Amino acid sequence: MATFQDNLPDLTVAPAAAGTGASVYIETYGCQMNVYDSQAIDGLLKRAGFTIVDRDLAADVILLNTCSVRDLAEHKVISRVGELRHRRRRADLPQPVIGICGCMAERMGTDLRKGPRKVDLVVGVDNYDTLPDLLGKLTGGTCATEQRTVTGHRSDAHYVAPPALYPVNNSHLVTIHKGCDYKCTYCIVPYTRGPQSEKSPAAIIEEISGIVSSGGREVTLLGQNVTAYNWQGGMGFAALLEKVSEVPGLERIRFLTGHPHDMHRDLIDTIARLDKVCPWLHVPVQSGSDRVLRRMKRYYTRDEYLEMVTYARRAIKDVTFSTDFIVGFPGETESDFQATLEIAREVKYDQAFCFKYSERPGVPAAKLADDVSEDEKKRRLAELMAVQEETWNAVAGACVGEIWEGVVEGRARHQLTREDGPAWRLRTANNRKVILQGGEFEVGDRLRTRITGIKNTTFLGARQD
Ligand code: 5AD
Ligand code: SF4
Fold first, then answer.
1. Cys-Cys link to 445, which of 7, 76, 339, 408 (CB 3.0-4.6 A)?
2. 393-412: pLDDT as tens digits
3. Which residues does ligand 2 sit against, CB inside 6 Å?
4. Which CATH superfamily is domain 403-463 in?
């Protein structure tokens, strides 16, 4: 399959195009898909002769890779544009070219080129291959107004983030498909990211083999709905996991995000059977109320979800779950909300990302009255987070004394005590984070650790030989 990288001219020998050599700072908002896309943009621009810098003030061009999933995420970006301009003025530096990429570019298009916070360039999720040329023209002062907004979906636009540019530790992100066909009624993603379109299994395997040959040992397969992966009607997600598992040298496979509706028993059995696939399922439930789930068009009931969890807990050793929740969906009553608290208590998630419903323009739920007041949404959010914390503390507390294996991902930011030497971050296969003090390790080392305590969502551990 053609990728953007394939389509680019070879710029390794030829002089860079007009205006390149400029420095670019990329700031990423939102989900892991955006993190991956920013890596792909980084690779694309470096190949075209641009320099990527890590300080906004040092850049000729600033690209904000944005998220539209909630109103607040969009507001943050708009005020960030003002702040970036202000920082330049205060430092007495020339204004940079500012570009908006990602979901906001797709949703708002030319509107972003108007008003006091207007930007110079708008490039949507499927058009990053145009960036080298556009940035060349913009920094060279030859970019026409009508060329400055490039949006619209293209099924061929599958990016590859070059592995050599990224640290070999931790998980390498690998996007396996883009877009979403589910159309949950609250969600803007099917509009900003377009219809679901798969990267081919061959391209995925090639990408992962490249990661392994540049030292990576772990990948996280990414997609809005990875469990709905379906290559030309012939290869589903379970079969893809089998194929990825066969890549020699690869040690661990994680994936995000699963849709509960697609977590069939054969997929769960495959996850259980494949040693390299990590026992951690991020399967957002969104709500515990059947009435709300129906109105969200989630295609499962509370009971079906719980059955899936029970089956997975029996089949997959040490499996853990994480979720997203939305509170205050239109029409959510107190008893609907209580059902959400109940499912949180019942599943006992390791992690729950909890959000207040945010009406997005043009989505089906926007036709429903956003009738849960802001104060009530805030109260429900706080209550849900408190239930999650309480549930988690009980689960985590019961782990103290257990012995786990984890992989060293790097140095921890803070030492636990001054005397005991550096602290290290470990991650277990089922996605639990452990901080361990003392000793000298290499990133990627596998260690056994005895759990000695908990600090918020992180465990504290001691080396166990
Ligand atoms: N309002 C609030 N949260 C939302 N999400 C998606 N759309 C909205 C919305 N309109 C949440 C869902 C999803 C996560 C990525 O963001 O919980 O799983
Ligand atoms: Fe949005 Fe639903 Fe698709 Fe997830 S599955 S991206 S919540 S529409």
1. 408
2. 999 999 999 999 999 998 98
3. 180, 182-184, 187, 189-190, 224-225, 259
4. Nucleic acid-binding proteins (2.40.50.140)
